[in-house]
Write a structure and sequence with these properties.
This protein is an alpha+beta fold and 75 residues long. It has two helices and four strands. It has a single domain, classed as TusA-like domain (Translation Initiation Factor IF3, 2-Layer Sandwich), CATH 3.30.110.
Length: 75
């Protein structure tokens, strides 16, 4: 999957990863994909809840080298 934009949210704790994700998605067009990398374990539940509330699709949620990687597609 092509990634249109990346957001480095490493070292940020709740709610900052979600707030920065929301801001990044605002600058994107429908169908584009945002990659978010976070070190906050709480971001796993937060990203799913954010996707459910906003209608943006959480395409994938993985853990790589102790970091949480999310791909979110803007609605």
């Amino acid at each position: 999957m092509n990634v249109d934009k990346e957001l480095d949210a490493r070292g940020l704790n709740c709610p900052l990863p979600i707030l920065k994700t929301k801001k990044s998605l605002a600058d994107m067009t429908a169908g584009q994909v945002l990659k978010v990398v976070s070190t906050d374990p709480g971001s796993v539940k937060d990203m799913q809840a954010f996707a459910n509330q906003t209608g943006n699709a959480l395409v994938s949620s993985t853990v790589e080298k102790g970091e949480y990687v999310f791909l979110m597609q803007k609605k």
